[in-house]
């Protein structure tokens, strides 16, 4: 299922009208309608808010396919995946990913960050997260998240980040390296 189909289905399951969801999200009813028609797409901050307000994971909301009644004995969907980030020298076992909002920085600085969330116990500070990578644009970040979600749904055990930016750090400044 697409994001639009998932959102509409989940909204109805939770008993919200488009107007009620729009009010909760602080957007217009037309915005919710566009999201459900696949015409528009919410900003990252709104996706995180949707996930929180509807009490669902981003994986459930964003996945293009939802594994239903998978009776195959050879394929076991665990809901976790090992994500490797060669640019950051990180390997993490995650059950979902989440991203930062757009960061206000220079033209050559990364605009978004991606984090993996592990199955460890939650604390006062929330679920345990690990930094995975930097992204130059929302499109590249969305593409990466979509591919990770597809891999989780398909039961693929590992995924290597493809669209993250290589970054050079100097003191408190970060600059993307062109390759």
UniProtKB/TrEMBL annotation:
<keyword id="KW-0238">DNA-binding</keyword>
<dbReference type="InterPro" id="IPR001387">
    <property type="entry name" value="Cro/C1-type_HTH"/>
</dbReference>
<dbReference type="InterPro" id="IPR010982">
    <property type="entry name" value="Lambda_DNA-bd_dom_sf"/>
</dbReference>
<dbReference type="Pfam" id="PF01381">
    <property type="entry name" value="HTH_3"/>
</dbReference>
<feature type="domain" description="HTH cro/C1-type">
    <location>
        <begin position="7"/>
        <end position="61"/>
    </location>
</feature>
<protein>
    <submittedName>
        <fullName>Transcriptional regulator</fullName>
    </submittedName>
</protein>
